[in-house]
Amino acid sequence: MSRAESKLKGICYLAGAGPGDIGLVTLRLREVMETADVVVYDALCNPDILKWAPEGADIIYAGKRAAQHALKQEETNALLVEKTKAGKRVVRLKGGDPFVFGRGGEEALELVRAGLRFEVIPGISSTVAAGAYAGIPVTHREHTSQLTIFTGHEDPTKPESKLDYDQLAKNQGTKVMLMGVERIGIIAAELIAHGARAELSVALIRWATTGRQQTLTGTLADIASKVEAAGFKAPAVAIIGEVVKLRESLNWFETRPLFGKRIVVTRTRKQAGALTSRLRELGADVLEIPTIRIEPPTDRRAFVQMISDAHAYDWIVFTSPNGVEAFFEAFFKVFKDAREIGGVRIAAIGPATAAKVREYRLCVDLQPEEFVAEAVVKEFKKEGAIDNLRILLARAEEARDVLPEALTKLGAIVDVVAAYRTVPETEDRSGAITRFCEEGADMVTFTSSSTAENFMALKLPLTAGLKTASIGPITSATMRKLGLMVDAEAKRYDIPGLAEAILAHFTASV
pTM value? Predict the structure, then answer.
């Protein structure tokens, strides 16, 4: 590629990662993340966003936190220019909005000077999001229709503050300060000295919009002492004004049933979303620590051959959504038409497995009420004699032999094919393992025996009082063999059932 071609192809996206809740990022951000060659991200970006980047993307941390800088701003500017000039699709991921005290304007100017293309992707700023999640509307018709935003962390090279405290103090509207919680005492004193009421309400919101959110309220007169007593640290947003009092009525986020609970999800990176979303909806701070990932079976040739002969079977039995997905992914590489599966009937263990089958526009002919292999045998018995019926069991490479042995005893001709295998997950892009080691958790969840086995193989520190939750009795049995207590077990052996068990455990202990 010539230099001119590289210049034309390269582009830098100055993208806002929002205030922390991954549900608040834009669709446009996800689009560019999924096609990124390089991602340069800051400290306050939700690291879960990084999982959208392609496998081979270059992930670079450029975080700044107080006096600790992974990269100086000049180095970040040079890096963006270098990678974009090389023809890369660069995503510069910045907390909040890139143009709201995010130095995105400086980075954009550097790209302009280099004659490079860029695009700005706005993000929701903590300016408004922090208050919204703390139950504090920054404007309200009965209280204020004016909003002033300022930073408490100014350029340290400036000889004096550029903040106009006289004007800030006179302004009767809501004031929102980004950064500078460590200077709240000085700033509050300056506002009072310039005429602001000492009893004016103040709220500090830390880790806003996430499961770690903390809110501290006070007045200009006492907020500094409260910060010191509580050991309240950055990152935090300060809201100053009468609207803070509305929090007593509008505090919706911190009153959810699992708020304040840190829960570990150990499912595969691809599958974690459903459980994570439900737990976050209930208020939990979720750490995704995938302990397994799904890979093709060791003997791919045998798997493909069995799929080629699928139409010759009377039944296909699926024991998990992974088996369904692996089967049909391979099936449609061999065949172009779903009708090639012939008149085979389909059995599925669990509603999630059945739902995955239906995604391929196929009906499920047999689905037991209980989501275990033993229940499938009971359902087949209800079907009548299965002597000499040919049954194909598509499952994980290492699985229990209860089902094929039981069906064989009933007279069926059973072929077992490994549709996929689970292997230990070794990547930790989001830094969740580091957080777990530093901060601990209230509960770890397990959705299969393999998630439990591989989690224990990580040899992470398990603090006293750490609870566990299991998706069902088979997983629970494995957990006990590994020396783990089972504190909550799903009555329905699926993700909604597991979420219900977790909620019941914590609400019962309140």
Answer: 0.79
